[in-house]
Amino acid sequence: MKIIKGGITAPQGFLAAGIPSGIKKSGKKDLALIYSEVTASAAGLFTSNKVKAAPIIVSQDHISSGKARAIIANAGCANACTGHKGIEDAKQMAFAAASMLNVPPEQILVASTGTISKPLPMDNILGGMRSLGKKLSKAGSADAADAILTTDLKRKEIAVQIMINKKPVRIGGIAKGSGMIHPDLVPPRSKYALKYGFGITPGHATMFCFITTDAEVKSPALGRMLKKAADASFNMITVDKDTSTNDCVFALANGMSKCGRMKRKDEAVFYSALEEVCKQLAKEIARDGEGATKLIEVRVEGAKSVADAAEISKSVAGSNLVKTAMFGQDPNFGRIMAAIGYSKAEIDPNRVNLFIGEHEVVRDGRVVNFNDVALKNYMKKDQIVIMAEIGLGKGAATAWGCDLTYDYVKINAKYTT
Amino acid sequence: MKIIKGGITAPQGFLAAGIPSGIKKSGKKDLALIYSEVTASAAGLFTSNKVKAAPIIVSQDHISSGKARAIIANAGCANACTGHKGIEDAKQMAFAAASMLNVPPEQILVASTGTISKPLPMDNILGGMRSLGKKLSKAGSADAADAILTTDLKRKEIAVQIMINKKPVRIGGIAKGSGMIHPDLVPPRSKYALKYGFGITPGHATMFCFITTDAEVKSPALGRMLKKAADASFNMITVDKDTSTNDCVFALANGMSKCGRMKRKDEAVFYSALEEVCKQLAKEIARDGEGATKLIEVRVEGAKSVADAAEISKSVAGSNLVKTAMFGQDPNFGRIMAAIGYSKAEIDPNRVNLFIGEHEVVRDGRVVNFNDVALKNYMKKDQIVIMAEIGLGKGAATAWGCDLTYDYVKINAKYTT
Q1: Do the Cβ atoms of A400 and A298 come closer than 8 Å?
Q2: What is the CATH number of the domain that holds A102?
Q3: Is residue A398 flagged as an active site residue?
C-alpha cells in the first residue's frame, strides 16, 4: 500500500467539485459534489443518535438500493428544525443534483452540517448546482474537502493505492469533524429511519467521511468492510462525548480499476487499505477537535475482550479530567486510572500497568518510580500516547481524542443557535 | 418538615469537630470527626468505580456490621498509590480514632480525599487526633463541614426536623464535591471490596456526604432508604462525567430522639425528609462544581420508565456542548435535543417537547416560535431549568449539573499530580 495524491478523485472514474454557494456567511466553499462516471456499489453508516437530521433520513432511504452515482453535501446549514419541509428540501437537493447529472435521484446521497433553526437555503443550493457540475474534475478533491468543513481548521484528505490481480486499485477519502464528535455509526435500518423521522440537529460540527474506490466490490461486502473499518477508526474517536445527529460515512466502489472480482486474499489487502484510510482520517478529526492542541492516543491491551478494550480506551480518551490534564501537560495517571475504573469493562486494578509514552507510571495498580523530568518533557509533545495493559485477556483496541482547552470552551460558549 | 440549624450535630447525641492538622498546605481545616454518644445503626454507599481508594475498602469492611460510632475523614491527601500500606494507614486512622474515643475500631468509618502519590501523613493525623477529640462539640458541624472541602468554594451543610410519634426527629448532613463528580453509588459488597483491593485515586475532588439522625432505624431499612434517596440525589448529579474512586455516603442513626419504632407512615415521613436532605446537598455540590457559574436542572417527564428518564436527564446535564452553551448564555436547544437523542433511553423525537425555563422551544420535535428576548434574559440567571416531555410514558427524573467554563479548564489543567 502506498500513499498517493488526489484524494477522492485518485480512484478511476471519480470527479469532484466544491464551490461557495453563499450558505456560509464567510464566503468560503460550502457545497461539495462527488461523482462516479458509472454506477457504483454504495454503503453507508449513520449516527445511532435517535434524533436524526433530515439528510440522514433521506440518505438512509436512498442507500438501501446498494447503488449510488454521487454525493451532494453542504456545510453552513444543517437543514433542521423545519419538520417535513426539511425532508422535502433534502430530497429536492438530491433531485437537483440528479437532474443536473442525469442520474436517478435515488442514486444521490445527501449530507448537511451547519447552523440550525433555519430552512436549507434552497436558492443557494439550487443556484449553485449548475456551476458545481461544471467544476466537476479530476482535480476537485481538495475543493470538495474544503466545502464540507465547519469549525475544522484543516482539510482532511487522503488517497492510497494497492495492487489487486496486478492492477492498481485506489481508495480515496475526505472527512470533516471538529466538535460534537463521538461517532457511533451503524448501518441504516429502514424501520429505524421511518420511525425516527425528521430530527433537530445541533446545527454544529458533525463528522462526515466520504470514501471512493475503483475496486470491484458488491455493496454487501463493501458495507461489512466499511462497518469493520469504522469500528476501528471513526467509532473510536471522541472530542466531547457528544454524538451528533448528522454523522455519516459513505463509500462508493465503481469497479473502474478493472481489477476483477476479489478473492479472499485480495479482500484482505483491500480491507487493510480501507481501514488505514479510515484510521488516518479519524486521527485527523481527533487532532483537529475544537480547540485541541494535542492528539491523544489511548492503546489498551490485555482486556478480557475487544469490546472491553474499546470501552476502556474510549473512557480514558473521553474523560474531561484526563483531557484537561493533557492540556496542562500534567501526566496525571490517577485520572487515567479512574477513567479505566469507571468504564463498563471488567478490570482488576491490581493487574493494571500504565505507560505514558515510554514511561511506565503504574505497575500492578501501584505507582512506580519514573523519570519525572523525562516524562514532563514528553508531555510537551503534540501527540501523547497512553498505553494500558489490563492483564485479563487478549482484547486490544486504540481510541483517539484530544485535550480539553480554553478554546473548546470559547468556541462552544460563543456559538449561537 | 422544617429546616433547622446545627447541621450534623442538630440530631441528639451527635458531636463533631474539624481542625487543621497540617495536611493541607494552606493551613486550612483538614481533619473531621463526627461522633455519636451511643452506637448507631449505620449504612453506607460507595463508588462503583472498580479502582477504589484504600479508605473505601476499609469502610466497606467496617460498615458490614451495620453499626458505627464515628466517622473520621481527612482532606488534602487521598491515601493512595501506596499499595498495602494505604490499607494499613486507613486502618490505623480508624484505630487511632477508636482508641481516642474508646470504641471498637470496626465502628469507625474512614474517608480521605486530596492529592495522590504520597502516603497518608500519619504524623499529622495521629498528632491531630487528641485535639480533634477535645474539640468535639454540639457546635462542631461547620468545622467538620469545612475540614472535608478541597476545591469546593462553599461549605455544604443542612439540618431538618420532622415529628414522629409526636417527638421531634432531626436529620443533619454535610457534604463536599467540586470536581470528578459523576457519582454512581452502590451498597458495599464484601466480595467486591476484597477483589478490588487498594486502588489509585485521582487524588482530586470526590463527593462525600455524611448524614446523622436521631431517628430509630435499623441498618437494613436505613440502607434501603439511603440508596433510594441517593438514586434521587447524588446519583443524579454530574460535574464532569468522571466517577471518582473515593465517593462515599454514610448515614448514622442513633435513636436518641426516643421516637420509638417507626410505622410505615412514619417511615414515609422520615424518608421524605432524608431525600430532601440528600437533594439539597446534591444540588449544592452541582452548583459548586469546579469553575461553575450556573446550576443546571434537567427535568424529564413522560419517559417510558424512571430509568429512561434518569438516563435522559443525566445525558443532557452531562453534555459538554450543553454545558458550554449554558456558560455562553446560549439557549442551544439543538444540543439539548442531540443529548436526548444519544442517551440510551427510548425516545421518539417527533413527540419531544422542550422547555427552557417557562419558554417552550420545541414541540413535537420541531422548533416553535418563542420570545427570543425573554429567553435570552432567562439565560442570564444563575440557575437554569431545562424540561423535556418525552411523551412515551410516566417515567420522571431530575438531574443536576453545572456549566463548563474557562475556570474548569484552568483548575484542572493546573492541577498537579
Answers
A1: yes
A2: 3.60.70.12
A3: no
What residues in A contact B335, CB-CB < 8 Å? 180, 202, 204, 242
Dump pLDDT digits (tens) for A208-226: 999 999 999 999 999 999 9
pLDDT beyond 90 at B77: no
Please say which residue of B286, B311, B343 terminates a domain: B286
Please state the rounded mean pLDDT for residues B339-349: 94
| CATH code where residue A386 lies | 3.10.20.340
CA gap A257, A215 in Å, rounded: 6
pLDDT at site A197 = 36
Chain B hits for A296, Cβ within 8 Å = none
What is the mean predicted confidence (pLDDT) over B317-332? 96
Helices (H), A52-154: 54-62, 84-101, 122-135, 141-147
Examine the domain organization and report whether A6 and A57 are in the same domain: yes
Determine the Cα–Cα distance for residues A136 and B332; give it in Å rounded to an integer.
Answer: 37
B406-413 vs A406-414: helix crossing angle, rounded to 10: 170
Domain check: are B244 and B377 in the same one?
A: no
Rounded to a whole number, what is the largest CA-CA distance in chain A? 68
The residue among B326, B333, B335 with the most chain A CBs within 10 A of its CB, best to mutate, is: B335
Q: How does pLDDT run across A342-394, given as a tens digit for each residue?
A: 999 999 988 999 999 999 999 998 888 999 999 999 999 999 999 999 999 99
The single residue of A113, A151, A206, A243 carrying the catalytic annotation is: A206
Give chain B positions within 8 Å (CB) of A51: 337-338, 340-342, 347, 349, 365
Q: Do B408 and A409 touch (CB under 8 A)?
A: yes
Q: Are both B252 and B329 inside the same structural domain?
A: no
- Test B342 with A180 for CB contact under 8 angstroms: no
Nearest to B71 by CA among B104, B98, B33: B33
Cell numbers standing for residue B320: 459538554
B342 and A182: CB-CB below 8 Å? yes
B416: pLDDT strictly greater than 70: no
- Angle of helix B320-327 relative to helix B306-318, nearest 10 degrees? 60
Enclosing domain of residue A138: 2-286
Number of domains chain A contains: 2
Please indicate, yes or no, whether residues B245 and B149 belong to a single structural domain of this protein: yes
- Nearest one of A174, A402, A173, A142 to A288, comparing CA atoms: A402
- Comparing CA positions, the residue from A72, A95, A77 lying closest to residue A16 is A72
Q: What's the CA gap between A243 and A246, in Å, rounded?
A: 9
Separation between Cα atoms, residue A353 and residue A388, nearest integer Å: 6
Shared-domain flag, residues B253 and B330? no
**Catalytic one among B82, B115, B206, B398?**
B206
> Quick check: B341 and A408 CB within 8 A?
no
A366 and B200 within 8 Å at the Cβ level: the answer is: yes
Distance CA B66, CA B54 (A): 20
Whole-prediction pTM? 0.93
What ipTM is given for this predicted complex? 0.92
Nearest Cα residue to B356 out of B406, B324, B396, B316: B316
pLDDT of residue B402: 98
